[in-house]
Amino acid sequence: MTRAVNRTVATFAVAFLARGADVGWRFACERFLDSYRRCRSGVEHSLYVIFKGYPDAGSLDEAKNLFSSVCYTPVFLGDDSFDIGAYMEWANQVDEEVICVFNTGSEIRIKQGLPSISEYPYSVECLHDQSKVVL
After folding, report:
1. 113 vs 56: CA distance, rounded Å
2. How far is CA 131 from the centre of its chain?
3. Burial of 78 (0-12, 13-18, 19+ CB in 10 A)
4. Rounded to an integer, what distance in angstroms lies between the CA atom of residue 33 and that of residue 49?
5. Does an H or E element contain 40, and which?
6. What residues does each domain of the chain span?
7. pLDDT in tens, the chain (135 residues)
8. d(CA 81, CA 97)
């Protein structure tokens, strides 16, 4: 399924999956945050942090506090699927047309963190009943 997206009005969302069940999740979240702050995005976007798999409320609160230095929207999901399941569930909850997802181990390592897709052709992936452009 494809559809045209008007590039002058497309909205962008970035999601970071902060999975508390992963060994070293604190370090992974700090590394992603450091790279997110250091790299310019290239596009105006909304940041979402998907929290899943935390063993207790204290760990979840600690994770949320790690992200307090950036503007983000928290999303809380169960830990009953792989990463792609969390991305699909989240994508169907947001209104943005273009999404970019990062897993718990991700680090942005290029100077312009998100591609300036207004300059490039792209394809549309169908996530359930809702189409999103996936980077």
Report:
1. 32
2. 16
3. exposed
4. 11
5. none
6. 12-134
7. 444 444 455 688 899 999 999 999 999 999 999 988 888 777 788 999 999 999 999 999 999 999 999 999 999 998 888 888 898 899 899 988 888 889 999 888 776 655 554 444 444 444 434 444 554
8. 23
Assign residue 55 a region (left: φ > 0; alpha: ψ between -120 and 50; beta: otherwise).
alpha
Complete DSSP assignment for 94-105: ---SEEEEE-TT
Q: Decide: helix, strand or coil at residue 56.
A: coil
How far, in Å, CA of 50 to CA of 58, rounded?
Answer: 17
24-29 contacts at long range (C-beta below 8 A, 24 or more positions apart): 25/63, 25/104, 26/62, 26/63, 26/66, 28/104, 28/105, 29/63, 29/66, 29/67, 29/104
φ, ψ for residue 19 (rounded to 5)?
-100, 110
In total, the chain counts a number of residues equal to 135
Residue type, 16: F
Place of tokens 């990463």: 83
